[in-house]
Amino acid sequence: MRIPFDARSAAAIRLQGESDTACLLLHGLTGAPGRDMWFLAEFLHAQGISVYAPLLTGHGATWEELRHATAPDWQKDAVRSLEEVSTGTHHVFVLGLSMGGVLALYLAEHAPAVDGVITINTPMVIDDWRLRLVPLVRHVRARQPKAPPDVADTTIELPDLGYNPLDAVYQFLMLIRTVRHDLGLVTQPLLSFRSTQDHVVPPRNAEVIARSVNSRYKSIVTLDRSYHVATIDFDRQKIAALTYQFMMMVRDKQI
């Protein structure tokens, strides 16, 4: 049975740290910060990092609400959130899961103040042939049943919308196209995680991103124990620790 989102799972996360470093955490399509970013937020905050994980437009409630969200809405969310997390800090990083990773790359393309970017199971090319039909099918069908959140850890029960609103999926595809076109503008250090058993985004996307950006430093980390929503799966400690290490190396000009 589907578990609906509640105030806790959908809530934005704001944690003020003691250092001069901050990180913006962006969730994926049909996800939410309280569900997908809580572990990373708590880990980074424990190291003194300020973190902000916003709830993107249309998310955290019902598929009907998400249906009306657009790619420009999510881009504005990301820009506004970056401005908020940047206030009073000297070093700012952006991290995103899936669609959140696409938005993180968008910010890296257009905001020179971003010090480094971290992507987790982020799509630039998707092999599912059914997605090619979305631009047409969305005019005759509002939603498509979706599988539960893709996690290897079967002990956790996650809130979910139950459906993919096809208008929102179409907007997501448009966002990917826009960001992919400008990947060459990304020059910040890049850390990219990919799950070998991702049932949503093909793992080869990490290589596509790494080949397309113009970052002097780019690293790909393979996750063998997690599925798509890796931020709360078996590799969450690995992701958090390597993210923090990456941020400190960039901050201290070691990479």
Structure description:
By secondary structure, this protein is of the alpha/beta class. It has one domain (7-251): 3-Layer(aba) Sandwich (Rossmann fold), CATH 3.40.50. Helix content is 37%, strand content 18%. The protein is built from 10 helices and 9 strands. The strands form 2 sheets. A 7-stranded mixed sheet has the order 1-3-2-4-5-8-9, with helices on both faces. It has a two-stranded antiparallel ribbon with strand order 6-7. The radius of gyration is 17 Å and the shape is globular. The termini are far apart. The mean pLDDT is 96.
Q: Write down the CATH topology.
A: Rossmann fold
State the helicity in percent bands.
25-40%
Tally of individual helices: 10
CATH architecture classification = 3-Layer(aba) Sandwich
What would you report as the Rg, rounded to the nearest angstrom? Answer: 17 Å
Count of individual domains: 1
Give the CATH H-level superfamily.
Alpha/Beta hydrolase fold, catalytic domain
Strand order of the largest sheet: 1-3-2-4-5-8-9
Query: Shape from CA axes?
Result: globular
- Which stretches of 5+ consecutive residues score pLDDT under 50? none
CATH class: Alpha Beta
Strand content: 15-25%
End-to-end separation in angstroms reads: 47 Å
Overall mean pLDDT score?
A: 96
- Structure summary, number of beta strands: 9
Descriptive tags:
10 helices; globular; Rossmann fold; seven-stranded mixed β-sheet; single chain; alpha/beta; 255 residues
Topology:
Blueprint: H1 7-10, E1 13-15, E2 21-26, H2 33-36, H3 38-46, E3 50-53, H4 63-67, H5 71-86, E4 91-97, H6 99-110, E5 114-120, H7 134-137, E6 143-145, E7 163-165, H8 166-181, E8 190-195, H9 205-212, E9 218-223, H10 236-251
Parallel strand pairs: 2-3, 2-4, 4-5, 5-8, 8-9
Antiparallel strand pairs: 1-3, 6-7
